[in-house]
Write a structure and sequence with these properties.
alpha+beta; Immunoglobulin-like; 2 domains; four-stranded antiparallel sheet; four-stranded mixed sheet
Length: about 160
């Protein structure tokens, strides 16, 4: 009986620790996001951005679009062009808007996974250009210089552990 009681106590401690760690991780990760500059390139339909944030490797945009054109729009795409701080184009994300009635407002949320985003351009288009999500890596982590420097160090460490004392 005492063993079962200990098991439930340890199980409860595990659940509490799991929830606490998840909450703290979420709070720590949420602070990594920074506000991103954006430019709306079209006047009609009207685009309102509520939040536009990014961290190093991903980000999100939240907002709404209002059809103020006076016409029914059967299909249209919200196009977001992503740029880094050097104004180099990194890629495009699309959000499909279907059956867009007159004076209707549609909320949107777009997540993206590009690195070092500094600016967004938002506009509308009629078609999607598939860029196969090929990201331009402006600052590669592993370069030839890094490999040339790391090879002798890795070899020395390997010999240190392989050779007996």
């Amino acid at each position: 009986m005492a063993t079962l009681k200990k098991f439930w106590i340890y199980f409860l401690i595990f659940i509490i620790a799991f929830l606490l760690i998840n909450c703290l991780t979420y709070a720590a990760m949420d602070e990594d996001y920074k506000n991103i500059n954006y430019e709306v390139k079209t006047q009609s339909p009207e685009i309102n951005i509520n939040e536009c944030k990014a961290k190093y490797s991903s980000g999100y945009i939240e907002g709404s679009v209002t059809n103020n054109t006076g016409e029914y729009i059967p299909l249209m795409y919200l196009q977001i062009n992503l740029y880094n701080k050097d104004k180099i184009y990194l890629g495009t994300e699309y959000k499909e808007l279907k059956y867009f009635n007159i004076n209707e407002t549609i909320k949107f949320n777009i997540d993206y996974t590009y690195e070092n985003i500094d600016k967004l351009e938002i506009e509308f288009t009629d078609k999607v250009v598939d860029n196969n999500k090929e990201h331009i890596n402006v600052n590669p982590i592993i370069t030839d210089e890094t490999i040339q420097l790391a090879t002798p160090i890795a070899g020395a460490l390997l010999l240190w552990y392989i050779l007996p004392y």
